[in-house]
Structure formats: structure tokens, C-alpha cells
Amino acid sequence: MSIKVTNLTKYYGSYLAVDDITFEAKKGEILGFLGPNGAGKSTTMKIITTYLPPTAGTVEVDGFDVEEKSLDVRKKLGYLPELNPLYYDMTPVEYLDFVAKLDGVPASDIKKRREEMIKVCGLESVRTKDIGTLSKGFKQRVGLAQAMINNPDVLILDEPTSGLDPNQIIEIRNLIKKLGREKTVILSTHILSEVTATCNRVIIINKGKIVADGTPEELQHKSKGQSVVTLEVKNNCDKSALSGSLKEIRNVNKVEFVKDTGDSFVFNIYGDKGADLREVISGKVTQNKAVLLSMQAKQSSLEDIFRELTK
Ligand code: ADP
């Protein structure tokens, strides 16, 4: 079960909202679509879910083309749109039965599926209350339940935690993580912490283009920032000889002597982005017959990268 987006482009009139993007999402993946407002996230999701046609390029869901096989695609996926459309005068039970019927769940399975969704999404306590009277968190859970009622292999969730309070956010994130083990999930967000908390892969999109794609850790390594290692050695060594030999390391741009603590020397060693210099530094320490007390590597944070890529 996969989603394959190839050279996807979408114009609204003459406005280019999605600009030639290509990516794939596989089973077991929770893919976070991260980008500022207006980046093109919802547009891409609407095309994947067959609600909008692409201007150019193709999207396949489990091998079915969204334009040519839209009914097959719809059967495979569940969609929580940004503006979660619910019937406020129905109860969760009535609404889920209604959606199940629309989604083609066989009549004999509807009750069973509905009860499963009520359980998974924690809707027991509100099952017979009018949806209009429910809190935002419960409404969002009803939205998730309707997206999953036909047991889809693919879940597309547009800003699934927007408008929720911190406790509700944690609950919905945990629910998504649980679901993500067996399904392919794409969720969109403009909040960085959302992807680090929930997703195992991130695509950063800006002005309709993909500007980064990888695990949160990979993106950190790819950043333009430098890696920094803080090194502490016992001060019974030749400081300038050690400093000189650290400067010789490939990928090291600068060695800075930070301080003499009285019994140790502290250095900051700056290297190329993504380079892990710890092993070679420890070799140089040994060569210089210095005693290693501690070593700590720091990379640019994902937040630095997001700002760097979307500014
Ligand atoms: P995001 O979900 O990342 O916030 P959208 O996909 O909603 O971004 O929007 C991308 C761009 O396309 C925005 O500049 C938005 O104003 C524009 N846009 C979205 N929907 C329409 C539409 N129906 N008609 C014209 N422009 C639109």
C-alpha cells in the first residue's frame, strides 16, 4: 500500500499552488507534511483524495490513478479535511452509520465497524449526544472515526490537531501513532513539534515546492548549520599541540579554546554540517596523550532548519 506522487502541479487560474512535487509514502509510514500557511499542503491532500484534479503530473494510491480510478482510490482511503464537515444534529452513532453506508461498508458490518471506531477513538461517553454539543476535541475524534470507518489502508489528515487543547493534542497524536503502524498516514501541519512528536518522515513544503524530505534526524544532518563538538580534556597535556592536531582533521573548520577550568581544558570544535567528528577527535586526543574527560556533539535543531528552508 503506497501513495506515489509524481511531478504533481496545480494551478488555481494563473496561480501556481503546487509546483512539480514528487514523493512516495509507504505502509507503516506516518509522513508529516510541514510548511507555512499557503505552502500547498491542503491542495496536495485534496488531489490525493480525488477532491481536486491535478493540472499536471500523476498521483497513484495503491496503484490506482486518482483521475482514472477515483472510486477505487476513495475506497482505499480515509480523509479528514481541514474543515471537518459534520452533521451537528446527528449523534456520533447516527453519523458513523450514515458515513459507513455512504462508504459502501456492507450493511451486516456497519454496526461492528461503528462500535470499533467508537472504541478506538474514545467516543463511548458521547455516543448518543448531538455532535453540535460536543467539544472541539470530541468533534475531531468523530472526524477521525468517520475517516476510518471503512478501515482504509491510507489516512490523509489535514491539520488533525488544529484547535485542540494540549491534552486532546496528545490523545489524538497517540491515536495517529497507533494507527500508523498498520496504515499509510499523511498528515499536514504548520507546527514543527507536531512532526517531531508523531511522524517518522517529514516533507517540508514551501511555496508549492518540496524543500526537504527525510527523517527528522536526516534533516538535521542536512542542515546548512555547522556541527559543534565540545571537548574537555585533563589539563596535563600540551594545549597548543592538541589544538594544532585537531585543526588538521578533515571537515574541521575551526578549533576554539573555550577555557581552562583549573583541572581541564575545554575546546569547541566546529565542523562541516552533518559531520560526526567525535571518533576522529578521540583519536587525536589519544595521539596527543591527553586524557579525555567528556565530549558532546550538537547539531542544528530541526527548528533552525525549518526557518532556514521556509524563510
Ligand atoms: P496550505 O494547506 O499549505 O496552507 P493551500 O494548499 O490551502 O496551502 O493553499 C496554497 C495556495 O493556493 C495558497 O496561496 C492559497 O491561497 C491558494 N488557494 C488554495 N485554494 C484555492 C482556491 N480554491 N482558489 C484559488 N487559490 C487557492
**Helix and strand run:** EEEHEEHEHHHEHEHEEHEHEEHEH
Q: Major sheet, described briefly?
A: 6 strands, mixed
User: What's the CATH first level of the largest domain?
Assistant: Alpha Beta
Rg, Cα atoms, Å: 25 Å
Report the sheet-strand fraction. 25-35%
CATH fold annotation of the largest domain: Rossmann fold
Q: How many E-type strands?
A: 14
Lateral arrangement of strands in the main beta sheet: 6-7-8-3-9-10
Superfamily (CATH H level) name of the largest domain = P-loop containing nucleotide triphosphate hydrolases
CATH architecture identity of the largest domain: 3-Layer(aba) Sandwich
Low-confidence parts, pLDDT < 50 over ≥5 residues? none
Count up the domains.
2
Dominant shape: elongated
Measured between the Cα atoms of the first and last residue, the distance is 35 Å
* Small molecules bound: adenosine-5'-diphosphate
Query: Level of helix content?
Result: 25-40%
